[in-house]
Design a protein that fits this description.
75 residues; SH3 type barrels
Length: 75
Amino acid sequence: MMTFAELKKGMSARIVEVPTVGDDHRRLMEMGLVKNTEFRVIKVAPLGDPIEIDLRGYRLCLRKQEMTGFGVEVF
């Protein structure tokens, strides 16, 4: 298992762990970031933050801080 912050451009991953506390995490879950969701890393900013991902037919840019607590599995 890896953290979201360790992902690199072109990697495909699946969310395996979702934090259950916090309004920010609930908002991300409402946008489709729930357990077993598969996504692909499209871009990583030059300084590593934010990271653009493609999931469920749309693209989303996320900061590493927003994704604290989410565990991912690369495949």
